[in-house]
Design a protein that fits this description.
Shape: globular
Oligomer: single chain
Number of helices: 8
Strand order of the largest sheet: 1-7-6-2-5-3-4
Order of helices and strands: HHEHEHEHEHEHEEH
Radius of gyration: 18 Å
CATH topology: Glycerol-3-phosphate (1)-acyltransferase
Number of domains: 1
Largest sheet: 7 strands, mixed
Structural class: alpha/beta
Helix content: 40-55%
CATH class: Alpha Beta
Number of strands: 7
């Protein structure tokens, strides 16, 4: 990677983290007073600004495909969004394109100062992966509560970040939600890992594609569902 691009990445990190921390500090004293709808607007502003900074500083553009499907598929009630996970950017972009949703996160994030508190107020669902079946039951109970509040669920079914090209291996928790909540699942495929990798602070210029894939309707058996979801993630994201 060229030296100039590394410098751009460092500048982006400095601006991005300064901006993010400022938002958290400003909102923190009022987090239990401000309505959730206001905090969701703040999260949208954060995601929108992050996308802008990526483009202006790193020359990394984010393009969305089939966003019109979201409004059509959610008009009859909450759904489950199943998003690929290749990069830290994957936890930012959903706040730019989705409305009224609660995200399933690993419990470790709850203990990060300010960030954990903000997610707690937004109704995020924290999962302790070490507890196995008990963790899955806890996830379902909390997801059921959010669905009753007319909020969709966002889950990263792979469980952790994968490199582009790695074999897709979705965890069974997503099927439990699909089956028990009787909700449509909307896969979101992406290629963020090509430009913002798992274990590198440097970002590459280019175009990230985020695509809303065809919905998976309720009623499939586990094998059929997992195959459909894996195939959605294995498709090449439109350029």
């Amino acid at each position: 990677m060229a030296v100039l691009q590394k410098i751009r990445s460092i500048i982006f990190d400095l601006v991005f983290y300064s901006f993010s921390v400022t938002i958290l500090i400003v909102c923190c004293p009022l987090i239990w007073i401000l309505p959730r709808s206001f905090l969701e607007k703040v999260a949208f502003l954060w995601a929108k600004t992050s996308r802008y900074l990526l483009y202006k500083i790193v020359r990394l553009k984010v393009v969305f495909h089939n966003l019109d499907k979201i409004q059509d598929l959610t008009k009859n009630g909450p759904v489950i969004f199943a998003c690929q996970h290749q990069s830290a950017l994957d936890v930012i972009l959903p706040y730019f394109i989705l409305k009224k949703f609660s995200v399933v996160l690993k419990k470790e994030l709850l203990y990060i100062p300010l960030i954990g508190l903000y997610h707690l107020r937004l109704g995020s669902i924290f999962v302790n992966r070490k507890r196995g079946l008990l963790s899955i039951r806890h996830m379902f109970k909390n997801a059921q509560k959010q669905i009753s509040l007319k909020r969709s669920i966002l889950i990263y079914p792979e469980g952790h970040r994968f490199k582009p090209g790695d074999k897709i291996n979705c965890q069974p928790g997503v099927f439990l939600l699909y089956q028990k909540l009787n909700c449509t699942v909307i896969p979101i495929s992406l290629n963020t890992g090509l430009f913002w990798g798992r274990r590198t602070p440097f970002k590459k210029p280019g175009t990230i594609s985020v695509k809303i894939e065809p919905a998976i309707n309720p009623g499939l058996k586990k094998i059929e569902f997992m195959q459909a979801l894996n195939e959605s993630f294995q498709k090449k994201t439109a350029s």
